[in-house]
Specification:
Elements: E1 3-7, H1 11-23, E2 27-31, H2 34-41, E3 48-51, H3 60-70, E4 76-80, H4 85-94, E5 98-101, H5 106-124, E6 127-130, E7 133-136, E8 141-144, E9 147-149, H6 153-163, E10 170-171, H7 172-180, H8 188-201, H9 204-207, E11 209-214, E12 218-223
Parallel strand pairs: 1-2, 1-3, 3-4, 4-5
Antiparallel strand pairs: 6-7, 7-8, 8-9, 10-12, 11-12
Helix pairs in contact: 2-3, 6-8
């Protein structure tokens, strides 16, 4: 049974989300702010965080940054009343994986939680099948319709990152830091060029996925039928 931590200073919201998650078959942990959440995980990590943005002591943005610093492979779903684009951008840049605006439907919350858990499970396997392509990070090999193909290392890492979380939007800063490192002294144009090359190598009509530009945010990989 997967364990979910709810981090929200509103006890009514925590109760609502707790009931929804338990009815969905999940075990639940709770914290009233970011500090409480970090103290709680010292006694055992959950499989996913559902985090409010506006909280006392440590807000959702700072909590996300701390989780990404110490626990890189834990999914985070932001659940907040702040639905404006700048808030979303800031949340994704802090390390959130997905964003659900209050008020929300219980079924949608459960669907997003389950989708995030699946994405992280796929990435942890080191082998990602996406469309007609199989990406093996262990051997840095790509197989397309049964044939092995080699591509430059940075393009491979970028594709693996995006394919590990289909439907997730990554900011440009996130991708640059993850693929090129914190001390990268280039600019966003480098990322854009690599995205362009991947699009040329893997046309959506042939491989079953596309890399989409999300205006004002960054990029995401989408599976196409």
């Amino acid at each position: 049974m997967s364990k979910i931590m709810i981090v929200d200073d509103d006890s009514n919201i925590r109760e609502l989300v707790r009931v929804l998650l338990r009815n969905g078959g999940f075990e639940v942990m709770e914290a009233s702010d970011g500090r409480d959440a970090l103290r709680a995980v010292a006694n055992g990590l959950p499989d996913l965080f559902v985090v409010d943005l506006m909280m006392p002591n440590m807000d959702g943005y700072e909590l996300c940054r701390n989780l990404r610093k110490y626990y890189e492979n834990l999914p985070v779903l932001l659940l907040t009343a702040k639905g404006e684009l700048p808030a979303k951008v800031k949340g994704f840049e802090a390390g959130a994986d997905d964003y659900l605006t209050k008020p929300f439907e219980g079924d949608e919350l459960l669907l997003r939680v389950k989708a995030l858990l699946r994405r992280y499970k796929i990435e942890a396997s080191q082998v990602i099948p996406i469309g007609s392509v199989v990406i093996d990070r262990g051997s840095f090999a790509l197989t397309i319709n049964g044939e092995t193909q080699g591509i430059p290392r940075k393009e491979f890492e970028l594709l693996f990152k995006l394919a590990g979380f289909p439907g997730k939007t990554f900011s440009r800063d996130q991708l640059i830091e993850d693929i090129w490192g914190y001390d990268f002294d280039g600019n966003e144009r480098t990322l854009d060029v690599h995205i362009g090359r991947l699009r040329e190598r893997f046309p959506a009509e042939s491989v079953g996925f596309r890399i989409t530009t999300v205006r004002g945010l960054g990029y995401r990989l989408e599976v196409v039928s």
